[in-house]
Automatic annotation (TrEMBL):
Catalytic activity: glutaryl-CoA + oxidized [electron-transfer flavoprotein] + 2 H(+) = (2E)-butenoyl-CoA + reduced [electron-transfer flavoprotein] + CO2
Matches recorded under InterPro entries: Acyl-CoA_DH_CS, Acyl-CoA_Oxase/DH_mid-dom, Acyl-CoA_Oxase/DH_mid-dom_sf, AcylCo_DH-like_C, AcylCo_DH/oxidase_C, AcylCoA_DH/ox_N, AcylCoA_DH/ox_N_sf, AcylCoA_DH/oxidase_NM_dom_sf
Domain Acyl-CoA dehydrogenase/oxidase N-terminal: 16-127
Enzyme class: oxidoreductase
Annotated ranges, domain Acyl-CoA dehydrogenase/oxidase C-terminal: 235-381
Functional pathway: Amino-acid metabolism; tryptophan metabolism; Amino-acid metabolism; lysine degradation
Name of this chain's protein: glutaryl-CoA dehydrogenase (ETF)
GO terms for MF: fatty-acyl-CoA binding; flavin adenine dinucleotide binding; glutaryl-CoA dehydrogenase activity
EC number: 1.3.8.6
Start and end residues of each Acyl-CoA oxidase/dehydrogenase middle domain: 132-222
Needed cofactors: FAD
Record PROSITE patterns: ACYL_COA_DH_2
Pfam families linked: Acyl-CoA_dh_1, Acyl-CoA_dh_M, Acyl-CoA_dh_N
Amino acid sequence: MALHPYDLYDVRSMLSEEEQAVQDTVARFTDERVLPIIGDAFDQGRFPRELIAEIAELGLLGSTLPEQYGGGGLNSVSYGLICQELERGDSGIRSFVSVQSSLCMYPIFAYGTEEQKKRWLPDMAAGRVIGCFGLTEPHGGSDPANMKTVARKDGGDWVINGAKMWITNGNLADIAIVWAQTDDGIQSFVVEKGMAGFAAQEIKHKMSLRASVTSSLFFDNVRVPEANRLPNVKGLKGPLGCLTQARYGITWGPIGAAIACLDEALNYSKERILFDRPLAANQAAQLRLADMARRITSGQLLSLQLGRLKDAGKMAPTQVSLAKWNNCRMAIDIARDCRDLLGGAGITTEHAAIRHALNLESVITYEGTETVHQLVVGRELTGINAF
Ligand code: TGC
Ligand code: FAD
């Protein structure tokens, strides 16, 4: 029996019927709606916002949240498969869904009041309200504890001053989940578009995640009512708790990018005739392709087990760090190698490999750089904090 080239260990057979159905639905969306337009969108530096309504219609925003808030009640493995299939199209599309679901809807769900959940979550699930997540600041994203943005209590309101940088969806967003230092530790505030003193400025000249909006946010005495403070968490564990959710999804996403690249390189190398034989007939080429399949298989098994642990309530942040590190490294190495196997053809966005390789430069950096995740694992092993 022939094995599936992108699923050598038959991970698919370990999925429930519902998980398989979710994967098939999102795969179809990527094939039919994302792949035909994404090369041009990347060239033009444009996030395809025309897809938002369909993404929402498919239930991909807040898919794991309870139905009473507009969510789909899906399990974590299904959410992972959503991320994988979207990133097979482009990391920018997966980023949009990650930020909306894990970084914006999740904190409102986990740290907000019942009133706040009812106020924002159903509209966010429907794609009518878009969010962004402001944690990183210009002076150093790896160390968010050194936060300079402050929120000061003033009567019944809060007044926010500071700046955030590299914020996905910044200029698209209707609301921003903003983390700020207070007299009582780090807290989060829902800052609404149009509030006086709040501005977003798009970051241009990106060579990565070009089909995604990335912005700086500025807060100049922005007055936010107490009703917009998420009251149920204080301290760094608030934003880090959101990051654990998003990083979990990001362990799956790059598997999709890597599969897209391997698919392209396999097809190309079987058809490309060099020295009177297909490129794929050379041992050196097969070694490279086999190594890609080996690394994808390892990544798939890692994420699936992580998802099962998460669904069982047993997932530890260090396990997420290991998988985020492994799978981003796996995918960026594969994308670069596929780009090389395509020769000169690999340098244009007519083919996907270079777009994925460039996107993965962001994916390996955001949500904790590779080094940050290595140091988290190192700390777990040694008991010594090297940050
Ligand atoms: P530490 O001071 O030890 O811990 C503070 C508190 O947080 C708890 N905690 C966590 N909770 C949940 N999940 C985690 N992953 C957690 N890690 C720590 C911890 O238990 C403690 O709680 P408590 O109750 O004792 O106060 O902090 P640390 O030493 O662990 O943190 C250091 C470090 C470097 C790991 C952390 O600062 C870090 O992760 N830095 C990287 C920052 C980062 O990833 N930024 C991402 C910004 S968002 C983004 O990039 C979005 S891109 C999205 C897209 O487009 O897809
Ligand atoms: P720095 O923290 O300055 O790191 C620079 C280098 O130093 C890195 O190589 C790092 O690994 C290394 N380093 C750091 N600490 C150590 C150490 N102790 N030992 C050795 N080396 C170390 N943030 C948000 O809040 N919201 C978003 O929506 C968001 N979206 C993003 C979208 C894109 C496209 C990008 C590129 C970034 C996004 N980010 C977002 C920010 C992202 O999380 C940060 O870029 C990331 O956390 C790293 O921070 P930094 O860029 O300031 O790099």
